[in-house]
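User:
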Amino acid sequence: MRKHLLVASLAIAAFALVPSTAAAQVGGFVMGGFQIDSPEGDGAIRRLWFGGGVDAPLADVIRVGGEVKFNHQTFDDFDESGNYLAFFGNVIVTPGSDSSVSPFLGGGVGLVHASAAGESSNDVGAHFFGGIKFGEGGSFFVQGELLTDFDASALVVGAGVRF
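Assistant: Predicted structure:
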């Protein structure tokens, strides 16, 4: 419970730092991706990930925001399936660039809920990501990402749209 309160407090503190004039510059995104690694022997298939979130500028090259991610897996070794739902508070760094292509790096911590075989768990998790934004205002992006709840990890490649 203390871990959950700590993460929630950090997320609230991050949003409190966003300048009130940034409200007009709040952006959203949706994305999808697929897991490219396979933990030994788990037999998981259908490794598609979906997510979305909002963020706002904190400084010229820094944005803070929140994100939700979802994954549903079925296991070919068993007649079971599992779900992964995560809520992250993120910090994203985008070096200043007036070009239509710009790199970004980010990371976040948050709450991870996993369920499978009638059991579920809530843990603190983290993710680290980097990619490239394309188009006017970074309308489209591709990224690579490492997700972890510190017991298991996943490498995900994805793409999305900002609005």
